[in-house]
């Protein structure tokens, strides 16, 4: 009978709230876990691959217990993953492999469990690292197949415990229940496709269906908020307000998730464009700035700088104007310091966002009136273009920023 491996892992992008790093965990599953088990002819799947209908918790517990192997990725210290790993250790004495990306700060209670580390770049995993870790993981699985050893701390310290037993028919039922056409993963994939096709209502309906089984998943909620405000239905302002309502579920007052903060910044920025309310401008700046200082990410950073230029252009007091313009220049320089070194690093070619980094650097240099470096990174970015969206965004933002800087410099001249 074909063996099974249930993978405890988040899907899509998750944030490590300790460090602010964002990790695409789909890349972990697709690039270094599933290929190993496919090669060994072992059925490998996640909770988001399970059939959508019915009570998802029951299916999850069944799979945690009955799978021949469990790989638990505790990167980002996702509470669900930690809890599910604990359930597996309580129910099964062996064949559990715990993995995590190498920058994770391991909590004390998990530190006595052997954790296999791999290097994650955030958006992707480098080819060399993927090959290294696949070989390592395959070796661990083959050792388990040859001779399973106790890896559960519970069964280690309580060796007289008797694990639950079940029949081969029960295992076969689990395999039959993996219907990918109705999985949460596929609902989200289809929703993203429909969003990109601008079929926003259908995309929202699919995401709401996905939330039934994963009601607290931050990625689905963020995507629903993004799809909602992009739809401008029934009006742009109403769509923006509705999107804020979805993000309220993610604790915006205290969150350190750069994606949530970036979305809130974008929404309030668009609300400001609707009503020119200083309240919305300040809220947008507040959220973008929090997101930037959590992670020093270029998306939040370049928007922070833009909003400081906007505030400077609106300033009527000379000191206020200089303060806001000075903050914009400070942020541009911070972006350049960090992200120019990323461009020069050995791992840059493995990234999936190369064009965005280059265009962001070009925009920062434009703000500082450094034409040579602006053109340098603009040309770099063009080499990595996969479409026109990134450069169109850059040119649109550059035009707006150019107009604001011209207005600002005119004000400075008149204030002399």
What report would you give on this structure?
The chain is of the alpha/beta class and 416 residues long. It has two domains: 4-179, Rossmann fold; 184-414, Tetratricopeptide repeat domain (Serine Threonine Protein Phosphatase 5, Tetratricopeptide repeat, Alpha Horseshoe), CATH 1.25.40.10. The chain has 17 helices and seven strands. Strands 4-1-5-6-7 form a five-stranded parallel beta sheet, sandwiched between helices. β5 (69-73), α3 (79-91) and β6 (96-101) form a beta-alpha-beta unit. It is elongated, with a radius of gyration of 24 Å. It starts with a strand and ends with a helix. The mean pLDDT is 90.
What is the compact description of this entry?
This protein is an alpha/beta fold. The protein is built from 17 helices and 7 strands.
């Amino acid at each position: 009978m074909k063996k099974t491996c249930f993978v405890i892992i988040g899907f899509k992008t998750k944030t490590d709230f300790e460090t602010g790093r964002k990790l695409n965990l789909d890349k972990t599953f697709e690039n270094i876990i599933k290929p190993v088990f496919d090669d060994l002819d072992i059925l490998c799947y996640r909770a988001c691959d399970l059939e959508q209908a019915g009570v998802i918790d029951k299916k999850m517990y069944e799979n945690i217990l009955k799978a021949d192997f469990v790989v638990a990725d505790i990167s980002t210290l996702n509470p669900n993953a930690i809890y599910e790993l604990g359930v597996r250790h309580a129910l099964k004495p062996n064949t559990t492999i715990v993995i995590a990306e190498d920058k994770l700060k391991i909590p004390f209670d998990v530190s006595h469990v052997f954790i296999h580390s791999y290097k994650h770049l955030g958006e992707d995993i480098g080819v060399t690292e993927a090959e290294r870790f696949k070989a390592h993981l395959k070796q661990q699985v083959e050792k388990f197949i040859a001779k399973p050893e106790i890896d559960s701390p519970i069964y280690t310290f309580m060796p007289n415990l008797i694990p639950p037993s079940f029949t081969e028919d029960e295992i076969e039922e689990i395999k039959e229940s993996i219907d990918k056409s109705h999985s949460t993963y596929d609902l989200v994939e289809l929703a993203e496709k429909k969003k990109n096709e601008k079929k926003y209502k259908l995309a929202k309906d699919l995401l709401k269906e996905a939330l039934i089984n994963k009601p607290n998943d931050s990625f689905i909620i963020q995507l629903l908020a993004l799809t909602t405000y992009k739809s401008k239905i029934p009006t742009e302002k109403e769509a923006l307000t509705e999107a804020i309502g979805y993000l309220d579920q993610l604790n915006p007052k205290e969150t350190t998730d750069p994606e949530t903060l970036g979305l809130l910044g974008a929404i309030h920025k668009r609300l400001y464009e609707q009503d020119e309310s200083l309240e919305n401008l300040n809220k947008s700046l507040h959220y973008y700035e929090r997101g930037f200082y959590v992670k020093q990410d270029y998306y939040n950073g370049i928007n922070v700088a833009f909003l400081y230029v906007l505030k400077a252009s609106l300033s009527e007091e000379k000191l206020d104007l200089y303060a806001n313009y000075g903050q914009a220049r400070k942020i541009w320089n911070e972006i350049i310091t960090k992200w120019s070194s990323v461009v020069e690093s050995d791992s840059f070619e493995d990234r999936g966002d190369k064009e965005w980094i280059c265009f962001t650097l070009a925009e920062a240099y434009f703000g500082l009136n450094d034409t040579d470096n602006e053109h340098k990174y603009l040309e770099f970015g063009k080499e990595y273009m996969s479409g026109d969206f990134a450069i169109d965004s850059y040119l649109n933002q550059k035009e707006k920023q150019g107009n604001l800087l011209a207005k600002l410099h005119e004000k400075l001249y008149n204030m002399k």
